[in-house]
């Protein structure tokens, strides 16, 4: 019940601050770009755009939301209620995943039709979006300013873009198989190409594993850097 | 001048806390190093592996990368201004000798100066373009572009969350050089409303023409940038009040 209320509130918050309108503009821009790109590059470009934006939108936006809540002193009253950090993180991750999923589907359906494996494609978007959102919250808990957060979040996210090197055949390494984004790329590819069950299972498992790990880390980071300062004024600053 | 000096010293002291200056300087320098040393390596790799001549696109790469300087310094300044507005710091500056106007002038001049210096350095050192006298026109447009990006966020966003969301749209303005280079001539004026289109277009015009056409493109670009800046300054002041 608490989660459902928080989820609905987060969706309303994102709507009120124009996230959905901004993503309509961004999707429109990407669709124009995809229309201009030659056919044989279109699928790769679409995958790159989906990977770097809708699926990773939480990386920047979630941190901004937490910083604003901290400035407004929302955490103090919020966490004296029975509301738990676990529910807070889940609510942020799932609400931003909705936006990610909608944006990714719009781009895919308009540019190249319904994904060949809708379940695989959607699972890739949702699990990557939740991973990036929770990573962002874990990072922002340690930051004081928005620019400091942007810088640190890029440092934390950098290792996770390495599988793109393998995807574009620049440099391949077995180590990439250990990264969640290798799973993301495989699941996103299932939008245009068929995918084996083994591949599907690997991608889901590696993403789930990393989601659990990053969730535990972000929860600890949030409790250490935000919760422990609650009540000391400045909304946990 | 002393009031600005104090603020500058304070910004340097807080570089660890808010890395606008640090990133504003080091990110363009990193791009400069990549252009100088990385571009020839990538060009060789593409030439040997895929028979693709990247050098044909070196002038496009030069202006595309330079265009990220005002975007980077401007948007980071815009987010800093939003941070300061959310924390009511701007109201404190308003009652000091600096006043609100002084605060805004300082915040907007710094990215402008930074962007101009780094862009000049890029044109001279990157090896992707040779510096010509007419490039001063481009540098002037870039100097106005950085504050435009800062105010795009600070004027239209109500807080840092909206600022971050708007910065996603701000990132799309990188389309200016793409339109100026790849879109055929009669159609490319559709992209004329994008601020980054004008310095990029001027850069390509300088490569092929001289005299009146260079001056004409510069003047149109300058008027466009000054109009944008004046509109956004007015919106920012209205919002701060």
Automatic annotation (TrEMBL), chain A:
- What domain of life? Bacteria
| Keywords, comma-separated and alphabetical | Membrane, Transmembrane, Transmembrane helix
Q: Which residues cross the membrane?
A: 20-37, 49-68, 89-107, 119-141, 148-168, 200-218
Signal peptide interval: none
Does the record's keyword annotation contain rRNA-binding? Answer: no
Kindly name one Pfam family recorded for this protein. FLQE3_permease
What protein name is recorded for this chain?
ABC transporter permease
Tell me the organism.
Paenibacillus etheri
Automatic annotation (TrEMBL), chain B:
Transmembrane portions of the chain: 20-39, 59-82, 103-124, 136-157, 169-194, 214-237
Top-level taxon: Bacteria
Give UniProt keywords alphabetically.
Membrane, Transmembrane, Transmembrane helix
Recorded protein name is: Uncharacterized protein
């Amino acid at each position: 019940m608490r989660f459902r209320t928080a989820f609905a509130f987060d969706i309303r918050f994102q709507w009120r601050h124009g996230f959905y309108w901004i993503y309509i503009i961004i999707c429109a821009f990407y669709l124009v770009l995809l229309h201009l790109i030659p056919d044989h590059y279109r699928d790769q470009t679409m995958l790159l755009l989906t990977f770097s934006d809708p699926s990773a939108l939480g990386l920047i936006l979630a941190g901004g939301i937490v910083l604003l809540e901290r400035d407004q002193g929302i955490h103090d009253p919020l966490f004296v209620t029975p509301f738990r950090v676990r529910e807070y993180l889940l609510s942020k991750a799932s609400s931003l995943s909705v936006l990610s999923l909608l944006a990714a589907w719009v781009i895919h359906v308009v540019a190249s039709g319904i994904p060949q494996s809708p379940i695989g494609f959607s699972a890739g978007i949702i699990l990557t979006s939740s991973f990036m959102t929770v990573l962002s919250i874990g990072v922002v808990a340690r930051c004081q300013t928005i620019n400091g957060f942007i810088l640190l979040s890029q440092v934390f996210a950098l290792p996770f873009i390495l599988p793109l090197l393998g995807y574009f055949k620049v440099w391949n390494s077995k180590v990439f198989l250990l990264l969640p984004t290798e799973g993301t790329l495989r699941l996103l590819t299932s939008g245009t190409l068929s995918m084996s069950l083994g591949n599907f299972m690997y991608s889901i498992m590696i993403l789930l594993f990393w989601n659990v790990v990053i969730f535990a880390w972000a929860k600890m980071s949030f409790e250490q850097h935000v919760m422990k300062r609650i009540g000391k004024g400045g909304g946990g600053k | 001048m002393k009031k600005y000096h104090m603020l500058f010293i304070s910004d340097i002291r807080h570089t660890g806390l808010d890395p606008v200056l640090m990133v504003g300087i080091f990110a363009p320098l990193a791009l400069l190093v990549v252009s100088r040393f990385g571009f020839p390596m990538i060009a060789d790799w593409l030439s040997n592996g895929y028979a693709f001549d990247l050098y044909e696109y070196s002038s496009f790469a030069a202006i595309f990368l330079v265009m990220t300087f005002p975007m980077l310094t401007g948007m980071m300044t815009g987010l800093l201004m939003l941070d300061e507005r959310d924390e009511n710091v701007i109201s404190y500056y308003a009652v000091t000798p600096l006043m609100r106007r002084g605060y805004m002038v300082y915040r907007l001049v710094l990215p402008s100066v930074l962007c101009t210096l780094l862009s000049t350095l890029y044109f001279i050192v990157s090896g992707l373009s040779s510096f010509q006298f007419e490039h001063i026109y481009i540098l002037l447009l870039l100097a106005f572009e950085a504050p435009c990006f800062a105010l795009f966020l600070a004027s239209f966003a109500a807080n840092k969350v909206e600022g971050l969301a708007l910065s996603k749209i701000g990132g799309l303005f990188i389309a200016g050089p793409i339109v100026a280079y790849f879109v055929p001539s009669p159609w490319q004026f559709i992209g004329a409303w994008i601020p980054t289109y004008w310095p990029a277009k001027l850069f390509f015009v300088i490569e092929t023409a001289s005299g009146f056409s260079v001056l004409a493109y510069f003047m149109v670009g300058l008027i466009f940038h000054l109009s944008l800046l004046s509109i956004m300054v007015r919106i920012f002041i209205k919002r701060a009040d």
